[in-house]
Amino acid sequence: MQNETIYILAIESSCDDTSAAVLKDGKVLSNIVATQKIHEQYGGVVPELASRAHQQNIVPVVHQALAKANIDKKQLSAIAFTRGPGLMGSLLVGTSFAKSLSLGLQIPLIEVNHMQAHILAHFIKEEQTAPPEFPFLAMTISGGHTQIVRVNDHFDMEILGETLDDAVGEAFDKSAKLMGLPYPGGPLIDKYAQTGNPKAFDFPRPKVAGLNFSFSGLKTSILYFLQKQVQQNPDFIAQNRDDICASIQDTIIAILMGKLEKAVEQTGIKTIAIGGGVSANSGIRNSLVQKETEKKWRTYIPKFEYCTDNAAMIGIVGHLKYLKNDFSQQDISAKARYSI
């Protein structure tokens, strides 16, 4: 086992991105992502359309990942795949493909929890970057999840707080939709916030006990605020777009950082890692870097390509599980809800 070269083919299909990656001994040789554009016209992901697109994309994406890695499928050591959480139809495509390929090649099958993968993406072997030391606090922020997790070891994780309703990514996207911005709106809010005044408009911050989050009240307050202003001035959003985006982003960042500070106080752990699609947000990344100076935290921010859904993060979990001989059986099934 020690002298063996470990090649992992990883497959990610939890939502609307079809991705395949090849890792050699924990290093990424390829990480291919096919993004589904069809959902833009609907203002959000349509599960049935997502699963159909995965069926069309998965073979060419896997083929491309193997070709870019310059290896033959017969060299693969194991197949890792996202078991959940996610959209059931999307997960079924990746799960079925992974099981079939594992069976055909007669190599091990490795199930991966998508949320664990966002955290363990920090352990992808890269030049000049070291992973966080245990224990550390991870904040996973995406379109479907908002969690603060205590990470004691690769597979010893404890959720300290999570959203009681909407995820932070949904708060960004729905706020953008209220402003008439196209889907996905979160990155656009980040873009326009760069030139806006973050203190132009004051939005309430929900008071939620402990380390849990709530974003539904914030979305409602933004809705009522915009409705009231547009009644008085139909051009209000167009005239104040950048300031509105900056104020929304500033409020969300304050909520996230406030909970992180509380988590550090409660645990005494000052090593912080972020993950998930929303960790690509420049305001959140900048705030975390500032905390390093202000609070003497050690912060770990993933590369942009490892923030959004991608198979490389699935692959590193597959690699770590392979080292432990932690394999799955062929009767395994996808799980839409799947806690870490």
* Morphology call: globular
Quote the distance from N terminus to C terminus: 28 Å
- The tally of domains stands at 2
Query: Strand percentage, roughly?
Result: 15-25%
Find the structural class using helix and strand composition.
alpha/beta
Q: Give the proportion of residues in helices.
A: 40-55%
Q: Provide the CATH superfamily of the largest domain.
A: ATPase, nucleotide binding domain
What does this protein structure show overall?
The protein has two domains: 7-124 and 309-323, Nucleotidyltransferase, domain 5, CATH 3.30.420.40; 136-302, Nucleotidyltransferase, domain 5, CATH 3.30.420. With 340 residues, it is an alpha/beta fold. It has nine helices and ten strands. It has helices at 47-69, 88-105, 114-120, 168-178, 186-193, 216-232, 236-267, 282-294, 311-323, and strands at residues 7-12, 17-24, 27-35, 78-84, 109-113, 136-141, 146-153, 156-162, 271-275, 298-300. The strands form two sheets. The chain has a five-stranded mixed beta sheet with strand order 3-2-1-4-5, with helices on both faces. The chain has a five-stranded mixed beta sheet with strand order 8-7-6-9-10, with helices on both faces. Helix 3 (114-120) packs across helix 9 (311-323).
What is the compact description of this entry?
This protein is of the alpha/beta class and 340 residues long. The chain has helices at residues 47-69, 88-105, 114-120, 168-178, 186-193, 216-232, 236-267, 282-294, 311-323; strands spanning 7-12, 17-24, 27-35, 78-84, 109-113, 136-141, 146-153, 156-162, 271-275, 298-300. It has 2 domains: 7-124 and 309-323, ATPase, nucleotide binding domain (Nucleotidyltransferase, domain 5, 2-Layer Sandwich), CATH 3.30.420; 136-302, ATPase, nucleotide binding domain (Nucleotidyltransferase, domain 5).
